[in-house]
Amino acid sequence: MKKALITGISGQDGSFLTELLLHKGYEVHGIVRRSSTEHRERIAHLEEHDKFILHYGDLSDYVSLMSIVGSVLPDEIYNLAAQSHVGVSFDVAEYTADVDAMGVLRILECVRNAGLTDSCKIYQASTSELYGRVEEKPQSELTPFHPYSPYAVAKQYGYWIVKEYREAYGMFCCNGILFNHESERRGESFVTRKITLAVSRIKKGIQSRLYLGNLSSKRDWGYAKDYVECMWRMLQQDKPDDFVIATGRQHSVREFCERAFHYAGIDLEFTGKGLNEKGIDKNSGRVLVEVDPGLYRPTDVVDLLGNPDKAKQKLNWNPDRTSFDELVRIMVDYDMQMKY
Ligand code: NAP
Ligand code: G4F
Q1: Best mutation site among 80, 228, 245 for ligand 1 pocket (most ligand atoms within 8 Å of CB)
Q2: Is 328 exposed, middle or buried (0-12, 13-18, 19+ CB in 10 A)?
Q3: What is the 3-class SS of 110-134, one letter each residue?
Q4: What DSSP state is assigned to residue 21?
Q5: Strands 218-219 and 251-252
Q6: What is the Cα 337 distance to its own chain's centre?
Q7: How far, in Å, from the CA of 217 to the mean position of ligand 2?
């Protein structure tokens, strides 16, 4: 039986990956942080499973990580833990660097110090944010990076230290350069989930308006449940390598909004420009979406579109598994069932 250790197990991706690995017969160990309120909704349904084991630790604390890696002796580590909010990284830049950059180094060093250099495979959650102020379109494994936030700069260190340890020590470690992936478990402050929750609340009459930042920003959005399978597939390759995972399709925040409201039976029309742009319900004339300049970022990544050809060829990745419409539908359906 293989043993996997997942950092960030309580997050969106960690919860889907845990389900996948338990289904494959793995013993799954996860690292959770102590918090004054328990927020383990995404993994609560797994806690009775006899091959599901949680450990307290923190990516900023080498001692805790070393103790966990040294006692679990995992075959595979999935390093998903991060301060993952790009906007928030401008407010907590030092902490973001500590966890998203130094945290990766700590994991790699734990593996070496536990004597697992030749046996333990490591997946690092790299990101399309590395392309930042994009230098070509679509973006592939060969596109130069131009990180454009404290989050992306920290993740760039993580990306390179993984490559370095692969070359210097022959470790089996891979970067998954994942483009945005969303789901009904997405954190509520990311734009897609903020929109689908607002659609549900507006339909139920408990929210009157949705405030957003840059409506023109474009993303390559996929479904998180599909993406975690690629993480696992990367570690089953003969040789370690880095892969872009994306759908190869792009939509703006504005389009996501239109589609989500439309699916809930509201046809939106956007009028005006810049800060004066508004999303209006065509039937009632009510303003449902407005721009809040406070939600703009000091530097924003606005044109992400991935080229998933390498993953298609080598990982048998199917970028059409869940369409954009299907993704929006899954999220709106889920949020419409929410009890407030
Ligand atoms: P998420 O839902 O925000 O989950 C982040 C996880 O990291 C949570 O379990 C969180 O624990 C944990 N964490 C945060 N700081 C930590 C620390 N100091 N020590 C230990 N654990 C810590 O993120 P996600 O969407 O699942 O993303 C997973 C990873 O992929 C992240 O590294 C993210 O940067 C990267 N990524 C995500 C996307 C995407 O579109 N989702 C795309 C590319 C890359 P708490 O529950 O205690 O907060
Ligand atoms: O949903 P977002 O916050 O995601 P972002 O910044 O792309 O980051 C996510 O994806 C990355 C992969 O590319 C991950 F590495 C990262 O961990 C995270 O999962 O914002 C998407 C876009 C941005 O351009 C933002 O400026 O939407 C724009 N936006 C417009 N209004 C908004 C809002 N973003 C948020 N969060 N909230 C708004 O009201």
Answers
A1: 80
A2: buried
A3: HHHHCCCCCCCEEEEEEEHHHHCCC
A4: H
A5: antiparallel
A6: 24
A7: 9
* 338: its two tokens: 């929410």
| Residues recognised as catalytic | 127, 129, 151
Atom of ligand 1 nearest to the CA of 9: 9
CA distances from 2 to 16, 93, 121, 166 (A): 18, 36, 11, 22
Structure tokens at 4: 């996997």
Kindly identify the ligand whose nearest atom is closest to the C-alpha of 126.
1
Nearest ligand to the CA atom of 244: 1
Q: How many residues does the chain have?
A: 340
Asked if residue 319 has a cis previous peptide bond (ω within 30° of 0), the answer is: no
> Which ligand 2 atom sits closest to the C-alpha of 215?
30
- pLDDT, tens digit, 9 for 90 and up, residues 102-120: 999 999 999 999 999 999 9
Over the stretch 200-211, which tens digit does the pLDDT of each residue have?
Answer: 999 999 999 999
